[in-house]
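Narrative progress, year one. The postdoctoral researcher (J.K.) led the effort to move from monomer predictions toward full complexes, under supervision of the PI. The following entry was the first complex the group processed end to end, covering 224 residues in total.
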Amino acid sequence: DAGVIQSPRHEVTEMGQEVTLRCKPISGHDYLFWYRQTMMRGLELLIYFNNNVPIDDSGMPEDRFSAKMPNASFSTLKIQPSEPRDSAVYFCASSDYRDHGYTFGSGTRLTVV
Amino acid sequence: TQLLEQSPQFLSIQEGENLTVYCNSSSVFSSLQWYRQEPGEGPVLLVTVVTGGEVKKLKRLTFQFGDARKDSSLHITAAQPGDTGLYLCAGATSGTYKYIFGTGTRLKVLA
């Protein structure tokens, strides 16, 4: 298996623009998580899905953030409009409930200027 | 809000030395994990512990879950430069499947 695949690896955008981050989880994993990592706040859970259904989105910072999982093999995290304080590394992770261990993707480094 | 405090925040040691990293919380966790993260990559799972007092060993790494399931430690014996990285603990409380991550310990092992 290729692991959790995220795209793009790097994204630089101007303030006010829409940004879409993409994630392909490991096949057969029924949980998918979106995290954000910054030096100041560390790794923060934004939202997670179980069987494509959002279970807990209490970590989503504002209405500017939205996430979808239209099928078991694809998820997106969208920021509209983006702001400089959204600059961070965004990670997607997937898990099989029987295993508990998360497998993380390599992340998307987002810079909003 | 759950808070997982890790100590020390930074650690720089010589190859061959031993070290211990701590993870503490006021919350009780049903399970706790340790990850290692290298620059430009996502965290990689090292171990999951679920029973109070549990000890697990992974080569030179020894993980312990506190009896009350509120804290954990990671001990590395004879550290090597390849152990360099960011060590993260993560805990999940009963009834949830989401893990909250600790503040991290950045380890550098000098050759």
